[in-house]
């Protein structure tokens, strides 16, 4: 965390020099706004006392991530980086703790390709599609998580799933925290600004886990608004901000609300609900994005991970807004540099025989199956049980129900049938493989959540509502053994200068 903060200013300036169009203040400098959980001590002489919001988040209107992506892609093109956009990675080639490449399907032709490599970095994003309501794109199916999990490489802290408070009702499409950073407020069906009850100091700019639990509580206690389909939502009110701020600083939010819900944020509040947003856990790495598999720092040689699929653990049990993009540009950069050094010092490792065996057998099984199960049906049942049982609030019993359902679905998955038996652009086949990844990822989330008998950050157990530093100041590591059963181990949390404290907002 200290390293990320120390490198943040350099990273922002580097992006600006690459051409990223940050929003500007009246002096022409990069503008900054408040964001959820971004605070400073009210009394500079008492760093552990009451805290107040602070303007710390650099931004490009309300589409900072999109703008950053385009800037980085443009710079890759300038430098002649080669992309393989219609390839779907299915497996990691690793032997004797050394990575040797990846296996991928060329979607356009259906051909299997082996990419022989000295180094591999996974930057495959999140797993939001494990859940029914998510802000993630349709490709957020946990592919990177599942691939390493199947390979016996551990996943760290998978129980910590972030639910962003403001997704468009029923759709989950993200309404950026920028809306509340500019002064938007949450209201219940009585028009009350309810966050004053749950976080009296910073109110609607409390961390995401705090607000999501508050929203669920409001709905549970009868202060939510029921839609015609029987589901509930609350209201994000921007109407008091005025047209200039909304149109200039929140154009994407405004467009989403108008297009998908027929709501004009200038005139009426936006119906919102918590949406599955971000994985705090993932493939364990060190600060150079090198994958490590235990508390001794043992590495998988040549293997790196960055972004949401990685867990360098700067986010702990609950990520603060903006830190995911900062994580990417700080640790992704460090990983890239480390990879370049590794490549210079090592020869290509030999490829093991039948490197593509898992991929070939999986494709053959799916294409030749005449089972009765459908991908869409199993996927929906998985998303429903995860949303209902391993969500913002969870208990031991609810998680056990989810685990039993996942076991059932994994058995049924063996009997899936797809209609398209061809090779070219067979999206049925890709979705079937993605479903297997969703099931494995959900298994890792659920087992990790069941074992952690406390509440911490985004992991809230109603049967264990308190944080338990005495017994649970440790990271979960879950992996599959040779019998393909989930095994959980732990490693201690390393405490440096700042001891854990109770969060007060």
From TrEMBL:
Pfam family, one: FAD_binding_2
Keyword set, alphabetical order: Electron transport, FAD, Flavoprotein, Membrane, Oxidoreductase, Transport
Known catalytic reactions: a quinone + succinate = fumarate + a quinol
Molecular function via GO: electron transfer activity; flavin adenine dinucleotide binding; succinate dehydrogenase (quinone) activity
Domain of life: Bacteria
Cofactor requirement: FAD
UniProt pathway: Carbohydrate metabolism; tricarboxylic acid cycle; fumarate from succinate (bacterial route): step 1/1
EC number per UniProt: 1.3.5.1
Keyword Transport: yes
Location of the active site: 208
Localization per Swiss-Prot or TrEMBL: Cell inner membrane
Transmembrane helix recorded as keyword: no
Topology term for the membrane: Peripheral membrane protein
Residue span, FAD-dependent oxidoreductase 2 FAD-binding domain: 2-325
Signal sequence coordinates: none
Gene Ontology process terms (BP): anaerobic respiration; electron transport chain
Chief localization: membrane
InterPro entries: FAD-dep_OxRdtase_2_FAD-bd, FAD/NAD-bd_sf, Fum_R/Succ_DH_flav-like_C_sf, Fum_Rdtase/Succ_DH_flav-like_C, SdhA/FrdA/AprA, Succ_DH/fumarate_Rdtase_cat_sf, Succ_Dhase_FrdA_Gneg
Coiled coil: none
Cellular component, GO, one term: plasma membrane
Residue ranges annotated for the Fumarate reductase/succinate dehydrogenase flavoprotein-like C-terminal domain, each copy included: 379-505
Family: Belongs to the FAD-dependent oxidoreductase 2 family. FRD/SDH subfamily.
Name of the molecule in the record: Succinate dehydrogenase flavoprotein subunit
Source organism of the structure: Kryptobacter tengchongensis
Lineage: Bacteria, Pseudomonadati, Candidatus Kryptoniota, Candidatus Kryptobacter
């Amino acid at each position: 965390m200290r390293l990320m903060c120390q490198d943040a200013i350099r990273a922002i300036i580097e992006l600006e020099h690459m051409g990223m169009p940050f929003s500007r203040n009246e002096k022409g400098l990069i503008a900054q706004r408040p964001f959820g959980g971004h605070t400073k001590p009210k009394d500079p002489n008492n760093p552990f006392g009451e805290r107040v919001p602070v303007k710390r988040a650099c931004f490009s209107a309300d589409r900072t991530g999109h703008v950053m992506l385009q800037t980085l892609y443009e710079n890759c093109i300038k430098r002649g980086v080669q992309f393989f956009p219609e390839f779907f990675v299915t497996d990691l080639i690793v032997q004797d703790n050394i990575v040797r490449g990846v296996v991928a399907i060329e979607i356009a032709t259906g051909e299997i390709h082996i990419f022989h490599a000295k180094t591999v970095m996974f930057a495959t994003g999140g797993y939001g599609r494990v859940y029914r309501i998510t802000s993630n794109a349709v490709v957020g199916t946990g592919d990177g998580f599942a691939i390493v999990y199947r390979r016996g490489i551990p996943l760290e802290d998978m129980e910590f799933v972030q639910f962003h408070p403001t997704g468009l009702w029923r759709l989950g499409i993200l309404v950026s925290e920028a809306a509340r950073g500019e002064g938007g407020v949450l209201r219940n069906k009585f028009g009350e600004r309810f966050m004053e009850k749950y976080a009296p100091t910073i109110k609607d700019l409390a961390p995401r886990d705090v607000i999501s639990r508050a929203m669920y509580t409001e709905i549970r206690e009868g202060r939510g608004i029921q839609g015609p389909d029987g589901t509930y939502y609350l209201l994000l009110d921007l109407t008091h901000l005025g047209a200039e701020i909304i149109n200039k600083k929140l154009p994407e939010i405004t467009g989403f609300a108008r297009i998908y819900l027929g709501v004009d944020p200038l005139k009426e509040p936006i119906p919102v609900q918590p949406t599955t947003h971000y994985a705090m856990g993932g493939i364990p790495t060190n600060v150079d994005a090198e994958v490590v598999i235990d508390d001794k720092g043992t590495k998988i040689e040549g293997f790196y991970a960055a972004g949401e699929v990685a867990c360098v653990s700067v986010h702990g049990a609950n990520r603060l807004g903006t830190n995911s993009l900062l994580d990417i540009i700080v640790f992704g950069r460090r990983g890239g540099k480390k990879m370049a050094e590794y490549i210079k010092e090592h020869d290509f490792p030999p490829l093991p025989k039948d490197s593509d065996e898992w991929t070939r057998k999986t494709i053959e099984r799916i294409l030749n199956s005449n089972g009765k199960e459908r991908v869409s049906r199993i996927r929906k049942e998985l998303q429903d049980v995860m949303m209902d049982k391993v969500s913002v609030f969870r208990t031991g019993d609810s998680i056990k129900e989810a685990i039993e359902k996942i076991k059932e679905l994994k058995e049924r998955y063996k009997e899936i049938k797809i209609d398209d038996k061809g090779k070219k652009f067979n999206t049925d086949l890709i979705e079937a493989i993605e479903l297997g990844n969703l099931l494995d990822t959900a298994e890792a989330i659920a087992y990790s959540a069941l074992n952690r008998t406390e509440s911490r950050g985004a992991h809230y157990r109603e049967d264990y509502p308190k944080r338990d530093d005495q017994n649970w100041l440790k990271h979960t590591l879950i992996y599959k053994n040779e019998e393909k059963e989930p095994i959980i181990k732990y490693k201690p949390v390393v405490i440096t200068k700042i001891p854990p404290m109770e969060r007060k907002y």
